[in-house]
Amino acid sequence: MPAVANQERTKRNKFLKGLRPDLYRMVLSGSPTTFMEAVNNAVDIEESLMDPRGSSASDDRACFSASSGGVAVVSVSAGVTAVESPAV
Questions:
Q1: Interatomic CA distance for residues 60 and 24, integer angstroms
Q2: Mean pLDDT, all residues of the chain
Q3: Who's near 70: CB < 8 A, 6+ residues apart?
Q4: How many domains does the chain have?
């Protein structure tokens, strides 16, 4: 199982390195241990930054697509256009 854990950590780290510096720091402060935790934290933070009142409009939603090759995050908002997991 160490190889699986290392692959998960590598995916998480590649994703984190692709984030904007401000978003990177905020996501990292949540100490995500898996790739999916990092993706979910990043999307949650991005949505909260786009609507500081805490209520999100229907056009500020992100869609997730998970597969064995990773996760693609596609947002219909202006903040995140598309993020795709690099193949490991």
A1: 20
A2: 75
A3: 11, 35, 84, 85, 86, 87, 88
A4: 1
